[in-house]
Amino acid sequence: MKILSKEQIYEGDRLTAERQNVSSTDLMERAGTAIFNWMHMRMQGAQVPIHVFCGIGNNGGDGLVLARHLITHGYNVITYIVNCGNGRSKDFLVNYDRIKNVTKDWPKLLTCKEDFPEIHVDDIIVDAVFGIGLNRAVDPWIQELFVHFKSTGAFTLSIDIPSGLYTDKPIEPESSAVMANYTLSFQAPKLIFFLPETAEHSTQWEVLDIGIDRDYLMSTETEVELISKHEVLPFYKRRDKFSHKGDFGHGLIIGGSKGKMGAVVLATKGMLSAGAGLATAYIPECGYTVLQTAVPEAMALTDDGDDYIEDLEFEFEPTAIGIGVGLGTDPKTITAFEHFLKLNKAPLVIDADALNILSLSKKLLKLLPEGSILTPHPKELERLIGQWDNDFEKLDKTSEFSSKHKVSVVIKGANTITVHGNKKYVNTSGNPGMATGGAGDVLTGVITGLICQGYPPIEATLFGVYLHGRSADLALEDYGYQSLLASHIADGLGEAFIDLFKQPEQEQQQEPEPEKEAQQRRKAKRARR
Ligand SMILES: NC(=O)C1=CN([C@@H]2O[C@H](COP(=O)(O)OP(=O)(O)OC[C@H]3O[C@@H](n4cnc5c(N)ncnc54)[C@H](O)[C@@H]3O)[C@@H](O)[C@H]2O)[C@@H](O)CC1
Ligand SMILES: Nc1ncnc2c1ncn2[C@@H]1O[C@H](COP(=O)(O)OP(=O)(O)O)[C@@H](O)[C@H]1O
Ligand SMILES: [K+]
Questions:
Q1: Domain residues for 517?
Q2: Considering its fold, how many domains does the chain have in total?
Q3: pLDDT for residue 86 is more than 90
Q4: What is the whole-number distance in angstroms between the Cα of residue 128 and the centre of ligand 3?
Q5: Which of 377, 381, 443, 446 should be mutated for ligand 2, with most atoms under 8 A from CB?
Q6: Which ipTM did the prediction report?
Q7: Among 172, 212, 347, 414, which has the minimal tally of Cβ within 10 Å of its Cβ?
Q8: Residue 160, marked binder
């Protein structure tokens, strides 16, 4: 699913009005009505007080449309205008007039803290103060209003985005934005729903279709895309009845040092579970028995070094190589790694200590084959690209790094983001159960295993990140967040593949709720027994 920039959203609104021969007021009517329908379906006329806070732009206009429909359907509505300036938008004014036709209780004007209404914890707050048009710091008294929302404990529904957040830059230090319980976003989710610094403002969200021109949505290239089953399914390569292991590549995992051999075991399992035809692990001597015992399906090649890799020489041509897991950063290993990079021709997935070595010796970046995949967690990323002040700067710097070195960078974490030049792909699968040692090692193996089978590296990466997270989501059913282990993710990869072909995803995207989903699956499982 495409994540449009603010400018693209405005252009979509404009083109839709033009191509469908409707006015911007009609579009606002659609937007407000979509929100109303969403609420009406859930509330069924319940007389809970609904406080609708409207700004003076089009987001506020949406709020006024909603309030009008709520009033005409008999809901208990109190409407407020947060008087934040003089620039009332044309469609706001149209709807300001329209609401006066349906109620004698005109919207209350709020101009300062003393005007804040009392709100009971069981009431509902609708936040239609600012949408994507926020373009300067919010006045302190309005920030206090946002704090007031939160302090009431009432359910807060934000329209389009939680007010006070920008779509493309961080908010001013120390300033407040609305903490929404739920956000109803028009046409496409916003990038800020997925970034660590802003995601908590909109943990639950849903996209509402307001009929933006299909052709425009289809043909517009966006910098950011959301990756879920729908996007990765077309990547899937079917297996031919007469295929043999030679068709699916021979992958190599290079890594391990004394005390860190498990990382290679996990990556090798991940690689095999992703479908590599053959797997070899290149490890220091001390890992031989470990590897052969833990992964009997894999072959083992040992280095001359006993406790860590010192030479890094082998005599076959792997289809793809995953390098770095448990590798260590001994000077001899670093020299061996440099030597390896000079000779290597295979596509690379680079993780953990291989990333740390690249950070220590940046000149080695020149030796990476074009299209290499780097899979840092945030700390490893910082070592590579330096510090950043906020999530947007982090993404910009990573894009720059990716373009400069012609590599793709997988920023791991909740909502892993793969940066490929200027493109950013936000993954939707995965859960906090994955915050466990070794989960990243499995991912290295999975991506390497997919490249082995002929997936172009960027597809292998998006597909691999999705499957890895999905496997962990499905494994929650049996392990919950706390007991989920990295090896469960490797073991569950098959279920993630099978799941690709299960029930189609819902049209309207929402952040997955793995725990809830796991509960439903448990219920279904019990029923089958
Ligand atoms: N065709 C349309 O115009 C549609 C617009 N939609 C709504 O329109 C929103 C965008 O509307 P707008 O562009 O009018 O902007 P917003 O309503 O998001 O808010 C910004 C308004 O407040 C002013 N403003 C910005 N920062 C401020 C600040 N810090 N303090 C005080 N005032 C500030 C701006 O000048 C503008 O008038 C979307 O988020 C969505 O909710 C929807 O109705 C869909 C259709
Ligand atoms: N809270 C979370 N939600 C979703 N995925 C997570 C979360 N925490 C970690 N992960 C995923 O788990 C993996 C952890 O990788 P990494 O930090 O390299 O761990 P390790 O080095 O122990 O293998 C990554 O794929 C990351 O995206
Ligand atoms: K809002």
A1: 245-521
A2: 2
A3: no
A4: 4
A5: 377
A6: 0.88
A7: 172
A8: yes
